[in-house]
Design a protein that fits this description.
Helix 3 packs parallel to helix 4 and helix 9 runs antiparallel to helix 10. It is built from 10 helices and 16 strands. It is globular, with a radius of gyration of 22 Å. A 7-stranded mixed sheet has the order 3-2-1-4-5-6-7. Strands 9-11-12-16-15 form a 5-stranded mixed sheet, with helices on one face. It has a two-stranded antiparallel ribbon with strand order 8-10. Helices cover about 35% and strands about 25% of the residues. The chain is an alpha/beta fold and about 325 residues long.
Length: about 325
Amino acid sequence: MKTALSIAGSDSCAGAGIQADLKTMAMNGVYATTAITALTAQNTTGVAAILEVPPEFLAQQLDAVFQDIPPDAVKTGMIPSAELMRVAAQKLAEYGARNVVIDPVMAASSGSGLMQSGALAALTDALFPLAALITPNIPEAQALSGKKIDTKAGMEDAARQIGERFGCAVLLKGGHLGADASDFVLRECALAPIVRGAVRKYARLFIAKRIHLTVEEMDARVLTDDKWLSFAIEQLLSNAVKYTGENGHIRISLCEPLSLVIEDDGIGIQPEDLPRVFEKGYTGFNGRAGEKSTGIGLYLCKKTLERLSHTIRLESSPGSGTRAIVGLEVRRVPFD
């Protein structure tokens, strides 16, 4: 089995950082090891606090991994200070680390800063020379190239410039460009394996909350992108599990016209929240005081489904649960 080391910060909500790297590596059959650079208190709305590890402790973590389970590849994420970056670079060079991927994390998805001022020079001078691949997003690429990026051609120019400057491959991520993702591949897919894969991802949560799950037999085939449809279904299942109480029930079925239905008997959504739950970053109370819910997951879900030419609507009432209906009939093919 191949091994990989993640050098990054801890994300308390597990949407990024060490936790996301562990899940990704495990899902791809890779044995994952870690060296934690910082603890964060964060969620989808922002970063509340950052606690860096001492540089000597990061060095000890790296020694422990390389001396016992030397990785076939290394991926770095959040390294908040210049001193920590220099320690990471020193140890990677000392052990001759191979296949180093540098994700130059400068801010969280919420916009909160994750890198101290002055650390950028250490990133480019100490870590980048060790990289086989750099994976900046658009704001990071703008900081590295000194150019404003607002088109795909601008992305290509910036990636070329960064690659030539640092002598490595560059994968420039376009999620901040303001346009929809463009890596959709539409083909006829069996729906059942997509649903089963999404359900498996949340199997432990179903068990932990003793939620009863019913998945009706479905032999439908749909014109879609299986990866992105799976992403949308996972977002809907995540919400259903989150707001369904212990010993609750979630049911997944098909209805006509060709639609996937995910329904729960959870707390439901307040009538005043229902029209706005797909708005980016909308925060509502979802039927219980003091416990807010961000709309970023549903926003991304709807944007993804629209790009696939699918539809989504919600039916809900407080105390009665929520019913998400995903229309899978494709009426247009959204090629540029």
